[in-house]
Amino acid sequence: GKDSFHPAVWENAQRVSEGQIWAIPWLSDPRALIYWRDLLGNAGVDEKHAFESPEKVIETCELLQASGMQTPVALPIESHLYMGQMALSWLWGAGGELVSPDGRQALFAQPQARRGLAAYFEMRRFVSKDAPTFINATQAMIERKSAFLYSGIGTLNTIIMQPSLAGRLDQLGVALPPGPAFLGSSSLVIWKHSRREQEALEL
Predict the structure, then answer these.
(1) What's the CA gap between 36 and 7, in Å, rounded?
(2) Residues with Cβ < 8 Å from 9, sequence gap 6 or more?
(3) For the chain, which terminus, N or C, has the lower number of CB atoms within 10 Å?
(4) How many helices (H) and strands (E) does the chain have?
(5) Orientation of helix 111-121 relative to helix 54-66, angle to 10°
(6) Per-residue buried b or exposed e for 87-126, using 16+ beta carbons within 10 Å of the residue's own CB
(7) pTM for this structure?
(8) Distances from the Cα of 13 to the Cαs of 106, 180, 191, 194, in angstroms?
């Protein structure tokens, strides 16, 4: 039953317009800002307030850049698979929504949503032109060419498991984005045309 799952993941397993459960929740993928404490500190950035608003995020980027870091944020801003997911925290933080609660009206072109999206894409000027993809953004963090990124638990695990960073992991920090955090998830479904439906369900 639903009490076995995180509420947000259970909600993702429902059909929006009907409330019908159509899948079994499998994996959750919470997003957060991952950053290097020492790189922020060297630039005079207070990590407690570095990401508390979109304006603070830009200010953090500017301070990092002024301290000599050319590309302060590692962001997969041109990865179409992740771009929408990443931008949602900024959109929600500005009071915007993608669609109405009943799923019948698009709201992403409303002023609040556009303001949030503009705040997210303003970070583009602090991202390396050579590394705008998800894989390259992770590598920029591993090589400490960037001070922070916004990503999921898988990226954090990739960074933690790098042998070259074994002595620096105490400098790794995690913070919430300047808006409600996106929680991705994967669910298991059994196709209507499955020949062995019961076996698939048992599996």
Answers:
(1) 31
(2) 25, 28, 183, 185, 187
(3) N
(4) 8, 5
(5) 20
(6) bbbbbbbbebbeeeeeeeeeebeeebbebbbebbeebeeb
(7) 0.84
(8) 21, 20, 15, 19
Is residue 140 within 8 A of residue 128, CB to CB? The reply is yes
- The H-assigned helical ranges of 16-165 are 37-42, 54-66, 80-93, 111-121, 134-142, 153-160
Beta bridge partners of 28: 185
Radius of gyration for the alpha carbons in the chain, expressed in angstroms and rounded: 19
Counting beta carbons within 10 angstroms of the beta carbon of residue 80, is it exposed (0 to 12), middle (13 to 18) or buried (19 or more)? exposed
Q: What is the spatial distance between Cα 107 and Cα 161, in angstroms, rounded to a whole number?
A: 40
- What tens digit of pLDDT does each residue of 158-175 get? 999 999 998 999 999 999
Q: How many CA atoms lie within 13 A of 68 on its CB side?
A: 4
pLDDT in tens, 41-94: 999 999 999 999 999 999 999 999 999 999 999 887 766 666 788 899 999 999
For the cut 60, the answer to whether the pLDDT of residue 110 exceeds it is: yes
Distance CA 183, CA 67 (A): 33
